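Exercise: predict the fold of this chain.
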Amino acid sequence: MENRDSLSAALRPIDDTDVTTWELPDGAIARFGQGLRLDVEFSHDGAYLSVATKIGFWLYDMETLAPRALWGTERGMMNVATFSHDARWIATGDQDGILKVWDTQNGQCVARTDWGGTERRNVILHVQFSPDDQYIAASGFGHSAVYASNTELNAPIRNFKLENPKLSDYRKEGASNDRHFPIAFSPKSNLFAYVTSPETVTVSDINTGEDIAYLTGHTAPLHTLLFSPCGQYLASASLGATVQVWDIQNESLVMTPKTYEGNRVRLAYTPDETLRVADIYNDKVLMCDASQQKELDTFNTVGTTAEDACFSNDGSKFAIACWNHSIQIWKEDTSTTRSFFSGYGSVPYFVAFMQDNNTLVGGNWGSTGKIFWNVRNREVQRILPPKAKRSALRKSIALSPDDQLLAIDTGDNDIQIWHIETEELVAELTEHENLIFSLAYSPTGEYLVSGGLKDELYVWDVARWEKRHTLIGHTSSVEAIAFHPNGNRFVTSSRDGTALLWNVETGEQISPLPLPETLEDASLYRGEPDEIERVIDGGNLQWKDNQHMQSIVFSPCGNWIAGGLGTWYADGLINEIRLWDTETLETRMIFLQPQGCIRPWALTFSPCGKYLVSGAWWKWGLDKAPIHLWEMSSGKNIHTFWGHASDVQDVVFSPDGMLLASGSFDGTVLVWDVKSIIGSD
């Protein structure tokens, strides 16, 4: 109870359950989704669970399974959040290589260090406190470090680095994607175990720096190290679900290596020195006694299992995340498990408002099920289809203009058409031979256009649900489709770097959109003077063959086409929004992105047509990914929203122009109040 009392002072009241309003960024009125989950960890007394996500880390009360806090949202991208043994501190490691320590009595960050340096691959994969809470350690790609104090992270007292590690050495074909380079403290806090090669664990004395044991012979990269309560043994688990136990003093195995039949394992020592193993399958978990080689319990999971799973400190509880966005809790001597966290923790690649200005539709990766949110009440209305499976990473969803039909990619190269109100399947379109990347209804509702991998592009007759045209023109995947407001024409953009204008009635190509290398008229550029000068001097030319548009849109009046140009290469280059005259197809203006903005691949016009919003991807060195609001008449960036911790995938205005919704790779949809910025235009 002492730990629970010391932590509870900083937690939200138990009846404060509307997590959609917790820790919102400036300008946002709601957040849907609790972030893409990356790790789960029990407090050492088992009273709380931390859930590290891309937006920060959540704290859950295990007695009620209620969320009690969300911390670390100023950057997010948390790989791990682990408790000190007395619950006085929480240490986090993020994907930027930043190690932080948080005071659980007030929720404030009290220490931090740039553990990863300038190497982008130096993300923090593991963080641990020593049992006496006097040391804290972190590890990542080929690097482990031990710090002497929880609040003084100026320099490590011990630093362990591998020379030129190769990522290929730490992967195993067919094995789950568990985190490598594990670390562990001994029960007396004097020994530290870490990985020094793909097949070797070194045990060092923290005080003297002397290496006292080398445990060799592992046949696959390790993801777990765990000292026994007596400190004499060290258990290890490797990719491919193999478990070994070593006598540290003799540097010898004390148990024949055991390979479990699931696709990964988790380990815990019980107080009586029993090594407990969770053997994890896709749809179930077996609890085993490793010493006696016997099964203790088994339970079916509520969905397909994900990578994040852990035991409590004494092995009496077990938490595992599933791809249906839930976390399931197992307790020994209990016949049932409990599940929670309905945070839809996956990537919303698509967002759309319905005509009532209040219903927001999100198309999330991880499931073909599309989520309908009530914005005013901040709650889920429905998920369509009701029984959905996991799908791929694509923005392939379309809402009919009358809000009656929803077209979705099934993940099997087919398109399903669902009636929203009745939740009935209306049609299935099976002509695609490859993955489907984009869908769009015509404004009249007469046609549906679908684009996919390997240049597939079809026009469908909605009345008959028959293929009307097969369009030939692109040579690579069709990334985006947009209709002119009159419904007669539409434009497509492709990974091949082209954008083409089409006649929907005849299926004929009208014209490609010109992409001149550099505009001769400098007055057509908008942006920072240095950036304009760089582009005019040919600064983008070396990357012109790699540029493409992942988003392209018509203005509401139909006079403009806007496309966001970017490239997978060259951070900070070719990041511009081009605006074409719809009739002449001449380039009328180019918005050059501010510094720190790359890949403006999410675009939408305001309903009045006076503004354009662009969402960008995150760039190294930023805390958040920007969303820019552009004034069309001047070409000026009049406001920037900072809220998402990772790449912005899609943006959309409500029909009345008062709200803006944005979906991000951080696993959330943010709803922004734009009325205070643009008025009631």
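Check your answer against the key: The chain has a mean pLDDT of 90.
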